Amino acid sequence: MELIKAPVYFDTNVFIYIIDGYEEYQELLSSLLHYIANNNILVVTSELTLAECLVKPIKDGNQEAIEQFKQHIQTSDVLKVKPVSREILINSASLRNELSLKLPDAIHMATAINQNCKTFVTNDQKLRVPEGMQRLYLKELLNNGKLIG
To answer: 101, 128 in Cβ contact below 8 A?
Structure first.
C-alpha cells in the first residue's frame, strides 16, 4: 500500500478518468478514493480543472458530461476547489522556470503548494513536483499493481 501524505492534489486527468469512467483506471481510482474517504484525506484542485475538463464535452455538445463535471468539481466536504488568484499566477510564473512546466501545469502546482498539498496525483508523466512533494503517477501505480488501500 502506498502511503499518501495529506492533503492531496488531483490533476485534471484524474477527474476525467473518474467522471468519464475510464475502465483501465476504474479499479485503481476506486481504491484510491476509498482510501482517501476512509482516512479523511482532503482533496484539493484548482478551478482551472473545471475549465480543462469541459473542453471536450463542450466540443462534442455533450450536455450530460458538462453537468457531471460541473456537479463534481465544486467545493464540498471532501474536495476544496481553489480559485486562480493573482498570487497563484505569480507563483506559477516562478514554477514554470523552476520545474520547466507548461502554464496550466504550473497553475496546478502553484495551487497545490499554496494549499500545502503533500501528494500530487496525476497521469502526466512529464509533470515534475517540487522537492518534498510526493507524485503519484497513475499509470505507474497501475503497471506495478500497487493499488491503494
So the answer is: yes
How far apart, in whole angstroms, are the C-alpha atoms of residue 7 and residue 41? 6
d(CA 94, CA 32): 31
Report the DSSP pairing between strands 43-46 and 8-10: parallel
Q: What are the tens digits of pLDDT across the range 31-69?
A: 999 999 999 999 999 999 999 999 999 999 999 999 999
Give buried/exposed letters for 81-109 (b at 16+ CB in 10 A, else e). bbebeeebeebbeebbeeeebeebbbbbb
Domain annotation for the chain: domains and CATH numbers: 8-143 (3.40.50.1010)
Q: pTM value? A: 0.93
Q: In angstroms, what is the C-alpha Rg of the chain?
A: 15
Pick the closest to residue 93 from 81, 101, 83 (CA basis).
101
